[in-house]
Amino acid sequence: MSSRTGRHAEPTAAQWSERADMAESAIVSRHLRNLWAIPGTTLGVVGWPATRRERAFASWHYWWQAHLIDCTTDAAMREPTPARRRRITAVARGMRTRNITGWTNRYYDDMAWLAISLERARRTLGFDDEMRTALVTLEKELYTAWAPEVGGGIPWRKGSDFYNAPANGPAGIAMARLGRYQRAQDMADWIDATLRDKETGLILDGVHLPSGEIERPVYSYCQGVVLGLETELAVHTDAPRHAERVLHLLDAVEEHMTSGGVVNGGGGGDGGLFNGILIRYLALVAIMLPGEDEVHVKARRTAAAIVRTSALAAWENRLEVEGEPLFGPDWRKPARLPGIAGAGYLTANGSVTASRTPERDLSVQLSGWKLMEAAHQVTAAGL
Known about the structure:
The chain is mainly alpha-helical. The chain has 3 domains: 1-14 and 257-383, no CATH class; 34-127, no CATH class; 145-251, no CATH class. It has helices spanning 13-31, 52-55, 62-78, 82-98, 108-125, 129-144, 165-177, 181-195, 220-236, 241-256, 274-288, 294-316, 362-380; strands spanning 2-3, 32-33, 43-44, 162-164, 206-208, 213-215, 258-259, 262-263, 319-321, 324-326. The strands form 4 sheets. Strands 1-9-10 form a 3-stranded antiparallel sheet. Strand 7 (258-259) and strand 8 (262-263) form a beta hairpin. The longest helix is centred in the last third of the chain and has 23 residues, at 294-316. It is globular and about 50 Å long. The two termini are 36 Å apart.
């Protein structure tokens, strides 16, 4: 039923493409289902093996589905197929339907992730007015959430006093990609002034406003979204501070968040997406960061090397189940076969806990898929 393989030589772009295909196939076969027998809809079941509650989409996790769209867009950009295009549309419709109230919810980080995924799918692959309508709605929510009365930033969710990097980072990326460069710069400057740790250079979680109390946990996806935001602004504005921040943050990530070139640790539940998000935006740095002097060339190569080395580790430590890969939450350790018991759950504060065996969480498998796609992207770019 299962097997592991040993170390391979440095893979080619074609080999990474094959591995990304396999990661996609595993998620499609294990996780994707029609929503409530409604034609033209699909969602990712949040666990495998799934509980009855999960199969019925009683739990479904909005922002995980947004990342499912983003991964499918990766695959469609790599090799366009009608099935992938249909899947993007079906998941978007599934989200809107399952969300009951339409495209929006109370959480600005959730809405930012959906805005990023829909904007990218529409820009790169071309989609209809349904997606444009969603983006107009999401853009308005994110833009008007800016809170100058407490010094800037947008809150984690409506009515909260907590203003954090996981909301402002992706919202800033969405603003930049929707042409709202000034607001994106406002968000980047606010994060840098408020949440950058002076000792390590890493980005802290968030701040309570107006009290100013800082929450100091350091998460990999906070680094990822800031790398992505600052890279977008380095490309689209003339302000040199954005590329400079990328260089400093990349150094901090390499020093504090990798071991042997592989991104450290990893968990399940919501945390299963954290390292995959960091990897996505390291790949963006590798491919998009402008500048041809030695320091910028080195930064692009460093970002690409972390992506490739992490992908090699994750692939070597995968479990193969019926010929398809199952990734672990920590890419440095062998993946384990999950059972149906010990499903994660939604907490009172809106976060999702890890399953007893995190490999069963869709979030963990999406990060593995992101990693394979990112390795293909940087390798195909010759990095």
